[in-house]
Amino acid sequence: MDSLTWLAYVGVIFTLIIFPGPVALLCTSHGLKYGRYRATATVLGGVLASLVLMTVSSLGLGAILAASESAFYVLKMLGGAYLIYLGVKAWKEASVVSPLANEHASQGDMPIAKLFRRGFTVGISNPKDLLFFAALFPNFIDVNAPQLVQFVILALTWLVIDVALMSTYARIGSGISRWFRSPQRARLFHRTTGGLFMAAGGSLMASQR
């Protein structure tokens, strides 16, 4: 892989990752409610999900999923249902966002392990990402050169940019937390977040390949 190909890949994935999706929304939400440092667990969970999807796709399972209508349907329904569940849960949440929802988050917040699991589950819930990685990587891999090394370079580049951008979303959430101290604004935040998650879930369930 030459440097121009790598730079083109960086430009493509930066544009793709920076566009806010369910994981970015979750990182922003957790940054606001639990602080940017605790939300790092959410970021890492989402990044691990991307690594798993990349690896599975490279093993050819993405192609298998693309060929199996029933498997794709089942997985997208499960993923969409989970996103809708998160949306309903956020919509019903009535608690006020803590005024300490920044780098000095309170000790009573959600456990780090749970934040990590939430990030991973949301990240892994979209089977279309398997098809996405299966379609993306071949465009940047030289078949005449060692492919494993190229895959590692592409994967690591994705992970570094993913961590940087999702951490930025978490910082944005933490930075605007002061604005959501009032019950009315906290309620607006929860309902907006819930609505977006439900929309994402419904979109996934209704989507085609």
From TrEMBL:
InterPro entries named in the record: LeuE-type (IPR001123)
Protein family (similarity comment): Belongs to the Rht family.
Name of the protein described by the UniProt record: Threonine/homoserine/homoserine lactone efflux protein
Protein location: Cell membrane
One Gene Ontology molecular-function label: homoserine transmembrane transporter activity
Membrane topology: Multi-pass membrane protein
Segments crossing the lipid bilayer: 6-27, 39-65, 71-88, 120-141, 147-167
Source organism per UniProt: Modicisalibacter xianhensis
GO cellular component assignments: plasma membrane
Main location, first listed in the record: membrane
Domain of life of the native organism: Bacteria
Pfam family, one: LysE
PANTHER family in alphabetical order: ARGININE EXPORTER PROTEIN ARGO (PTHR30086), HOMOSERINE_HOMOSERINE LACTONE EFFLUX PROTEIN (PTHR30086:SF14)
Keyword field: Cell membrane, Membrane, Transmembrane, Transmembrane helix
